[in-house]
Specification:
The protein is an alpha+beta fold. It has 16 helices and 22 strands. The protein has a 7-stranded antiparallel sheet, covered by helices on one side. Strands 9-10-15-16-20-21 form a 6-stranded antiparallel sheet. It has a 3-stranded mixed sheet with strand order 17-18-19. The model has no long low-confidence stretch (mean pLDDT 94).
């Protein structure tokens, strides 16, 4: 059987392929690829970050692994709070984010990696870290997408002088496309983690150092937060679509429910698709009613969503299918990063508690000891007999489920091939405006409609794998410089 990978970076893909060619399975390849993301895609992945994964074994068993961020157990009043705004300049617009240790939630990436290995791995962890260790020492050239993110996040990278040589040139300017990124501290960190396991991170000296710094500088994280962190392994949200089953993440992902609601309302043409997105956005505006609205459209679903706060930024994704039929769809994030790098690791902590515009009652109104919500939506579609047809995911913040849903709509409703479905122009509805990508057939007369001159990363980057029973295909969305290979 052929194998396939689609991802957001050619180095991530190369590492996954190396493991598959060495007779590792899809889960081994995912572990090695996720470690590689720490250096190849440092704006989207880190030991201080988090993620979701859908996993499918060769026997057809599909599970959802939630290793997203957890809010601190206690929210005590702090005499000094390390929590402050930075302005991110997008060129035509700017936005304020909050960083500092007071913006950091408990990270889940390392726990997620080890949970995947414990359940599905076939190659020792000490071998799976080797490609990333080599990359950290030799360096990875910045690609165009990461260079763009470096420019955006420059104010955050300047917060910690210990990592200035990683992100800045000798003249003090932020590194650019083609410049080499090396992380010697990460190489040592990965060696340590491969020897000590996740306990070395959550119960050992690393957790102690983060907790001590947090308490001294003005953050909420404590040793207990790390010691009590765990990965949730859940049944995915599953529903019927076009005589197939769509598998999506359960809570704490909102994205799965949103994608299901959108597809259940989109019929026949692009105008219907646009209206389905608008209707879905209005239906989920009140987060507490998402389950109620989903039940109206898809009765008897198993979706669960506990009250919490959402965090929707800084995401990347990859999919892997191996020769035996094992598959994984994994999305990761660190938000924008909080500007604090774990000492001697080169790994930045997330700022998932720093998006205060998501908190109706203002900064620090989050509920203690709860999983944060996310729009990240790793996705799988199978035939009724269980054969895997489609694997996908996307970056793109709040647009993620809508972008993936539009590719599925083009594949199954419009019967287009994978490339056509991915490259087809997209639409989004947000803040009472339709955003229309160039080429989208928009016949609805609406005020406040914005027409984009070109395809843009705003509309997501849906990386995917598709098997119609005759041909295995894979694609990386060009909107976010994706790459793919079948071999």
């Amino acid at each position: 059987m052929q194998q396939a990978i689609s991802s957001g970076h050619k180095t991530t893909l190369a590492v996954a392929k190396e493991i598959l060619l060495a007779k590792g399975n899809a889960f081994d390849a995912a572990i090695a690829a996720h470690f590689a993301m720490f250096i190849a895609e440092p704006c989207m992945a880190s030991a201080g970050g988090n993620g979701f994964a859908l996993t499918r074994t060769s026997r057809g068993n599909i599970q959802f692994l939630d290793f997203f961020c957890q809010t601190p157990i206690n929210k005590k009043k702090l005499n000094r709070l390390d929590f402050y705004p930075v302005k991110i300049d997008f060129g035509s617009d700017s936005e304020i984010f909050h960083i500092g240790l007071g913006a950091a939630a408990v990270p889940g990436s390392i726990a997620g990696i080890f949970e995947i290995h414990r359940r599905f791995g076939s190659i020792p962890m000490k071998e799976l870290v080797q490609p990333a260790i080599q990359l950290a020492k030799e360096g990875v050239p910045l690609d165009a997408f990461q260079a763009f993110d470096f420019q955006l996040l420059e104010p955050i990278f300047r917060q910690d002088s210990a990592v200035k040589d990683i992100f800045f040139k000798s003249n003090g300017q932020i590194k650019e496309e083609g410049d080499l990124i090396q992380m010697f501290g990460m190489a040592d960190f990965l060696t340590f983690i491969s020897n000590e396991g996740e306990r070395g991170f959550y119960q050992g000296g690393i957790a102690k150092r983060i907790a001590d710094d947090s308490q001294q500088r003005g953050g909420f994280l404590t040793r207990a937060d790390f010691e009590n962190y765990h990965v949730n392994v859940l049944d995915p949200l599953k529903f019927n679509y076009k005589n197939r089953y769509v598998y999506l993440p359960n809570g704490p992902s909102k994205g799965g429910a949103i994608l299901a609601m959108m597809l259940s309302q989109a019929k026949e043409d692009e105008s219907s698709l646009a209206l389905a997105i608008e209707k879905t956005q209005r239906m989920v505006a009140n987060e507490s009613k998402i389950k109620i609205q989903l039940d109206l459209l898809i009765p008897n679903n198993n979706f669960r969503l506990q009250p919490s706060v959402s965090s929707n930024r800084g995401t990347s994704h990859f999919n892997i299918l191996d020769r035996w039929g094992n598959a994984i769809s994994l999305t990761s994030s660190i938000g924008e990063g909080c500007g604090y790098f774990i000492p001697d690791t080169n790994m930045q902590l997330n700022n998932m508690l720093g998006e205060i515009f998501l908190l109706p009652d203002g900064a620090h109104s989050w509920k203690p000891n709860t999983r944060l919500h996310s729009m990240m939506t790793p996705t799988m579609v199978t035939q009724k007999n269980g054969d895997l047809e489609f694997i996908a995911g996307s970056g793109g913040a709040g647009r993620i489920p809508f972008a993936i849903g539009q590719v599925i709509f083009q594949l199954y409703e419009k019967q287009k091939n994978l490339r056509q479905s991915t490259e087809q122009s997209r639409v989004h509805f947000q803040e009472e405006k339709f955003q229309i990508e160039k080429g989208f057939d928009f016949s609805l007369k609406k005020e406040n409609t914005v027409f984009w001159k070109n395809q843009a990363m705003y509309f997501g980057g849906v990386h995917s794998i598709f098997n119609d029973g005759k041909k295995l295909d894979a694609i990386g969305d060009s909107r976010r410089f994706g790459v793919a290979e079948v071999f």
